[in-house]
Amino acid sequence: MVKQILKETEDRMHKAVEVVRQELIKIRTGKATTALLEGIKVEYYGSVMPLQQVANIAVVDLHALSITPWDKSAIDAIQKAVLSANIGLNPVKDADNIRVPIPPLNEERRRELVKLTKKFGEDGKIAIRNIRRDAIEHLKKSEKAEHFSEDDRKKAEIEVQKMTDKMIKDIDNHLAMKEKEIMEV
C-alpha cells in the first residue's frame, strides 16, 4: 500500500514538473524554435487542425522560421492562423512557403518574460506541495485503516518530502536555464 501511494505521488509530481517545462518551452527568447508555433490551429477545408499537420516547420537560422505547407493552397490560412495566434510574430509569404522572422527582445520585454517564467515556476512548486499534502493525508488515512504501522507511515512521509525537494529542485533548474536563455543577448 505504501509503495503504491509513493509511486502515484511520484508520477503526479513528474507530471507537474513536465507541465512547467512545457510552459517554459513556449516562452519566446528571441531565438527561433519550432516550439513557438506549437498549439497554433489552422482552419483548413472546413476543419481546424494543428499547424504541424498541414505544414512542415523548420528553423532557418537563429532569427527565422520557415513554414512549408503540404498543400500550397493553405498558405493564406496558415499565415492568418499565425497572425491571429497573437504571439507577436508577423509571417511573410515567400513563394511556396512562409517565413516567420523572430524579432529580437528589448530589455524591458526580457524582464517581463523572466517574471512570467518565475510565475510558471511558482505555480509548479505550489502544485508539487499540494501533491505532497495529498500524499501525506492519504498515508495517514491508510494508517488509520490499519494497512501499515506508524513507523512505515513516517518513513513514507520522509520519502515524500525527499521527492518534493527533488522535484522543486528540478523546477528551479528549468527556471534558471530559461532565465539565462532569456537574458542572453
Topology (SSEs and partners):
Blueprint: H1 2-26, E1 41-44, E2 47-50, E3 55-61, E4 64-69, H2 75-84, E5 92-94, E6 97-101, H3 107-144, H4 150-183
Antiparallel strand pairs: 1-2, 3-4, 4-6, 5-6
Helix pairs in contact: 1-3, 1-4, 3-4
Structural account:
- The chain has 185 residues and is an alpha+beta fold.
- The chain has 2 domains: 2-26 and 106-183, Orthogonal Bundle (Topoisomerase I, Chain A, domain 4); 34-101, Gyrase A, domain 2, CATH 3.30.1360.
- It is 58% helix and 16% strand.
- The chain has helices at residues 2-26, 75-84, 107-144, 150-183; strands at residues 41-44, 47-50, 55-61, 64-69, 92-94, 97-101.
- The strands form 2 sheets. The chain has a 4-stranded antiparallel beta sheet, with helices on one face. It has a two-stranded antiparallel ribbon with strand order 1-2.
- A hairpin with a 2-residue loop joins strand 1 (41-44) and strand 2 (47-50).
- It is elongated and about 70 Å long.
- The protein starts with a helix and ends with a helix.
- 28% of the residues are buried.
